[in-house]
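Quick note —
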Amino acid sequence: QVQLVESGGGLVQAGGSLRLSCVASGDLSSINAMAWYRDKQRKLLATITTAGDTTYADSVKGRFTISLDNAENMVSYLQISNLKPEDTAVYYCNAGRVGRGRLIFDADWGQGTQVTVST
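Predicted structure written out below.
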């Protein structure tokens, strides 16, 4: 079982930046990818594999950067620049694997981290 803990959210002015962190722990033997989502609907924002392959939702390309540190643990970061009020949301991460030519994220969700962007 994998546990996920997100952090790094906060209140920031529009135009500012934040770096969100997600630490995955537990049984990581089959984990080789991580992803970031936001909102209750869990809108997919970005994914990254241990091979370094990344994908982004069109709506966040150019402002969001996902990265992964898997030297010791699985820690994913989401750098958000030029924050906009519409970025206000709870951000979640998930952990998964590459399987059958697609990414599968099915770990239990963490508590998320709140990002609030003020005008």
